[in-house]
Amino acid sequence: MNLNQLYYFKKLAELEHYTQASKELFITQPSLSGSISSLEEELGIALFQHHGRNIKLTKYGKGFYQYVCSALTELEKGIEKAREKSGSYGGVIDLGCIPTLIGDFLPVAINDYLKNVDSKTKFNIFQGMTLDVIEGIESEKYDVGFCSYIENKQNLEFHPIMAQELILLVNNNHPLAEKDSICLKELSGYPLITYRHSLPIGKTISKYLKTNHLKALYAYDDEISIGGVISNTDSAAITAKTPFLYQFSHLKMIKLDIPIDARLIYMVYNKDSYHTLHVNSFVSYVLENECNLPL
Amino acid sequence: MNLNQLYYFKKLAELEHYTQASKELFITQPSLSGSISSLEEELGIALFQHHGRNIKLTKYGKGFYQYVCSALTELEKGIEKAREKSGSYGGVIDLGCIPTLIGDFLPVAINDYLKNVDSKTKFNIFQGMTLDVIEGIESEKYDVGFCSYIENKQNLEFHPIMAQELILLVNNNHPLAEKDSICLKELSGYPLITYRHSLPIGKTISKYLKTNHLKALYAYDDEISIGGVISNTDSAAITAKTPFLYQFSHLKMIKLDIPIDARLIYMVYNKDSYHTLHVNSFVSYVLENECNLPL
DNA sequence: TAAAAATACTCCATAGGTATTTTAT
DNA sequence: ATAAAATACCTATGGAGTATTTTTA
Questions:
Q1: Nearest nucleotide to A15, CA against C1' atoms
Q2: Which chain A residue has the Cα nearest residue B80?
Q3: DSSP character string of A104-158
Q4: For B21-67, how does the pLDDT look when each residue is reduced to its tens digit (9 = 90+)?
Q5: Percent of chain A, pLDDT > 90?
Q6: Mutation site, A69, A74, A155, interface B, largest B CB count within 10 A
Q7: Locate the HTH lysR-type domain: which residues (chains A, B) (predicted)?
Q8: Residue B146 in contact with residue B265, Cβ under 8 Å?
Q9: What is the DSSP secondary structure assignment for residue A215, as one 8-state letter?
Q10: Which domains can be identified in chain A, with CATH numbers?
């Protein structure tokens, strides 16, 4: 038995006419006849019967037809899914991304790619914390991730794509609100909040605070939470400068003496995973055109 | 693409080891390697990737695997169903049968066939009125039917297989209960019931009653209904003598002057339909061994 | 070095083609 | 006479084989 026999059988079952079916199948009538004969022989049962000079499906052919249809449909779905990942255009790319890039870097990168490289590519975007993104990359749920750096991941390839400036955030009533820039050591005595310590950015900030003997409340996951708190308390926050913060009025962003490359965001992918041409193409494009690194 | 490639892919996806898979598939490792390569090429996507000297399914291979599995499962179900109808033994035969033979003729015929010809045959028995049986034969729902004769069915082949004696049925209190045999014309004046006129047996009986200027209530579908009525009224009934009547006590069966072959029951099948070897074998067996006709 | 997969090539089975015959309208 | 399917025969593609090389643990 082979796949063509099944396609031939399906068509013949629908038309109940060898000559007609053979035309639609782009084979000759004797070829179709032989193909069906050998299928019937292999099954040990007549799928078609003669009614005068014409043919009709038998009871058994009708039964077999149902199974063949669903088998072929299922197979074709599989082929289509596989092909939509490849093909010369129109691939599918699954992206994992931390919140801070979702509204800013990522749509720009994707739009540029669609405009300049392949407008038929479909992007599935999943949002999550860095650890979620990394897990998705390792499990191959995502093709490419955008997140912080994580150590001891030999199978992952990290490429820095942008630096986020770390700033001091206060509301307009805060005693430091007058300043445009400030040193970390001047913060001593002011209540400070920042990201949860389990996040890479929390760890990074913690490093700078410790060398300056500063304490802080490490409790937040993202800039929106931090912005909300700062709007309504007299705490100050160390946070990444992102467009999310612009939604709050009455906030003041103050430059800090933290190196511009202290907080880097990376594009990451699994070195051991197979990637489609589309994925590779997107990765290359981002590396060459969308990186925004200091110096 | 061909079916073997799919079977090969499935096995390789499960074992993730070419040499091992090729053994289980009874082909050589290079053959398997080539087969999978061409499948990957046709799909335009890598289904497996290298991990050192071993291989692993890719994300895309995993997706494709799901579809291939269900397609192959579906196909195999179809093949199995088709083969179970044929095969050298163990076929399936669908029978339609009127109630009067269900408990008597049919189980005997089937048991004899299972004992003497093919013990692996499976019989699906469906009960219905003659017209239901005929409809099932015409629609190929049934392979073989047992029922009365119906006219103007050129595509159906009827073979008489038994005669049922038509008798007068009364209860023990009936004035005629003393008699062992009686002529139809002696029934004038007694209330009579019999089968519904829409049934073939009702038509047959009606013919004999009319030639003797007798009237009757044509209202019943089967012998059990008739037996029940006769047990509890002082009507008499013209009915077929069947084992169903033995469940009633206090009933008397009286011979009538109706020819023994007035009521014939037929085996019927569709001349235009394809029949498996098993069906043909059963039909022949019944004709040769289970017929019980007068003279 | 040994185990695994890929490559190079060879061969034959068979899918599909052409020409023709058989069957039924 | 004609339309439909089956049969007979032929050809060429490609599926599977053997022998060998490449890769990597």
A1: D4
A2: A43
A3: THHHHHHHHHHHHT-TT-EEEEEE--HHHHHHHHHTTS-SEEEE---SS-TTEEE
A4: 999 999 999 999 989 998 998 888 889 987 767 888 888 889 999 99
A5: 70
A6: A74
A7: 1-58
A8: yes
A9: -
A10: 3-85 (1.10.10.10), 92-162+265-289 (3.40.190.10), 165-256 (3.40.190.290)
